[in-house]
Inverse folding.
């Protein structure tokens, strides 16, 4: 089970809500600024660029407090195969503390920080002010563990540089341009159809608006009990009918002059939304789809209720997709070419970018920064990544001649037959604070059989969208409030467009939305977006 991906999907709404919580500005901005790496004690071991420091540091009784800004994080340490090994290798005991933004605020307001802090939003006030309360990782590495620079990705370090020119936090699941080219990460976006439906409806062209409308009618005629077209729920935003549909159409992220491009008002995208309006009018999109939450959607997936679906984050839906595939192999979902640009653009299906997911920092009140940077190095190294994903070589996995890995027969038996033991005693693939998708790809069993064809079919369309990462206005600003209003308005407008009674009503709704944009200072928002796009391009060296 891909715990990290599932968890990311589940907490998307929570992360958005967290942006609205004010952080302890005074504590974040003003505390701990006098603490420097130069003032820290020298290492008690020999440092080397060729050997990770944890292999040289023989100190004992090291204890660190690590705060993770998520109540669901498993606080146990040293009780399972993986964290026992971490504890032994590093001679460290970690006390994990969890909470939410309120607890994080309390830390900064009180002036007493834990040794390590992990947050889930690299654009938050805490993250942006990290130079005031956390040590630069490059400086700690130079003093205590130069090997860090061999395992940390330079492109990721550059992306996370703050105004002081240093990198203070390191993310999990930060996909570099090298990762995108490697073939070891996959998109989680796809247009899929049941195999039995595909075989029964004859030759249908789902790539054009007209063909899509006709194809949905053909499905309804042959399979009246199915919902012809389904899509991810709207509970966390705009479903797969927003960004994923735009990616399927290859809608640009930037205008020709390099400025922000409003993908929602793209002519090609609106043409397809009009087609979906007709599909809805024909009775081939259920009104329930606009109200269903994530659990309801997955329940319908698990019973093959939808004939076709436009999916986002389908890795997080592996369980219901696999349940259906196992119960009815003839009806298993397969990815096909569908929903293509009317202007000849190729799909640009994306995945997590350089910003990654979690971001971890070593605070200026850390009692043992030498051991803390050793942990970062350890978990980022091939050795650490293989440990947290696959356990101990020879005991739980073996390495094949081609570099891939396989579970040992004993481990695989537990994995397949005793999920509780697998989670509690092995904790495989769960300790993800420095995780990365490329290691997951080393094992063919990392992903459910039901989604492997989706990944293979759409691999050719994987495209990073680094330039538009984190370009929304900063929380707490007037523009951020306007942006929030616009985002909410678009959610309701998108539903209304698909449910519109006619093309004329559709056009009126689009015009009303454009007016709403103007009335909510879209020019000021776009000016901020454009400035942040320039900053991103500078970080990318463009």
């Amino acid at each position: 089970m891909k715990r990290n991906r599932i968890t990311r999907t589940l907490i998307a709404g929570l992360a958005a809500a967290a942006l609205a919580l004010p952080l302890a500005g005074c504590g974040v901005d003003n505390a701990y600024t006098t603490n420097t790496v130069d003032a820290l004690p020298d290492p008690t071991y020999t440092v080397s660029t060729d050997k990770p420091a944890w292999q040289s540091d023989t100190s004992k009784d090291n204890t660190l407090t690590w705060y993770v800004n998520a109540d669901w994080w498993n606080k146990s340490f040293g009780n399972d195969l993986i964290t026992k090994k971490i504890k032994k290798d590093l001679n460290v005991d970690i006390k994990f503390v969890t909470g939410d933004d309120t607890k994080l605020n309390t830390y900064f307001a009180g002036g007493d920080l834990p040794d390590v802090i992990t947050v889930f939003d690299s654009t938050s006030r805490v993250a942006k002010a990290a130079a005031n309360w956390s040590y630069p990782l490059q400086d700690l590495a130079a003093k205590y563990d130069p090997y860090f620079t061999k395992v940390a990705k330079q492109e990721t370090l550059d992306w996370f540089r703050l105004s002081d020119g240093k990198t203070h936090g390191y993310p999990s699941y930060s996909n570099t341009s090298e990762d995108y080219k490697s073939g070891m990460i996959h998109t989680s976006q796809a247009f899929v159809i049941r195999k039995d439906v595909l075989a029964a409806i004859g030759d249908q062209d789902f790539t054009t608006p007209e063909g899509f409308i006709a194809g949905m009618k053909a499905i309804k005629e042959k399979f009246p009990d199915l919902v012809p077209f389904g899509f991810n729920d709207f509970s966390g935003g705009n479903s797969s009918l927003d960004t994923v549909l735009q990616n399927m159409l290859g809608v640009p992220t930037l205008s020709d002059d390099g400025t922000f491009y409003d993908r929602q008002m793209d002519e090609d995208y609106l043409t397809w939304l009009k087609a979906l309006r007709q599909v809805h009018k024909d009775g081939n999109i259920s009104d329930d789809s606009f109200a269903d939450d994530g659990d309801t959607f997955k329940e319908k997936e698990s019973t093959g209720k939808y004939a076709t679906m436009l999916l986002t984050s389908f890795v997080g839906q592996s369980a219901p997709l696999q349940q259906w595939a196992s119960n009815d192999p003839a009806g298993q979902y397969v990815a096909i070419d569908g929903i293509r640009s009317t202007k000849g653009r190729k799909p640009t299906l994306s995945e997590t970018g350089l910003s990654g997911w979690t971001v971890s920092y070593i605070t200026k009140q850390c009692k043992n920064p030498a051991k803390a940077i050793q942990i970062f190095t350890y978990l980022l190294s091939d050795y650490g990544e293989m440990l947290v994903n696959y356990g101990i070589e020879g005991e739980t996995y073996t390495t094949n001649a081609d570099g891939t890995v396989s579970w040992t027969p004993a481990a695989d038996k537990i994995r397949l037959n005793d999920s509780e033991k697998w989670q509690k005693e092995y904790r495989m693939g769960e300790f993800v604070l420095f995780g990365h998708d490329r290691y997951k790809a080393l094992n063919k069993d990392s992903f459910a059989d039901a989604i492997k064809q989706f990944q293979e079919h759409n691999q050719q369309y994987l495209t990073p969208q680094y330039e538009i990462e984190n370009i929304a206005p900063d929380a707490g600003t007037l523009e951020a409030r306007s942006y929030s209003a616009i985002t909410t308005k678009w959610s309701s407008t998108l539903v209304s467009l698909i449910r519109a009674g006619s093309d004329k009503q559709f056009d009126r709704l689009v015009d009303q939305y454009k007016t709403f944009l103007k009335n909510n200072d879209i020019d000021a928002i776009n000016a901020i977006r454009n400035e942040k796009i320039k900053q991103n391009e500078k970080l990318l060296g463009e």
Observations:
- The chain has 26 helices and eleven strands.
- Confidence is low (pLDDT under 50) at residues 1-24.
- The radius of gyration is 25 Å.
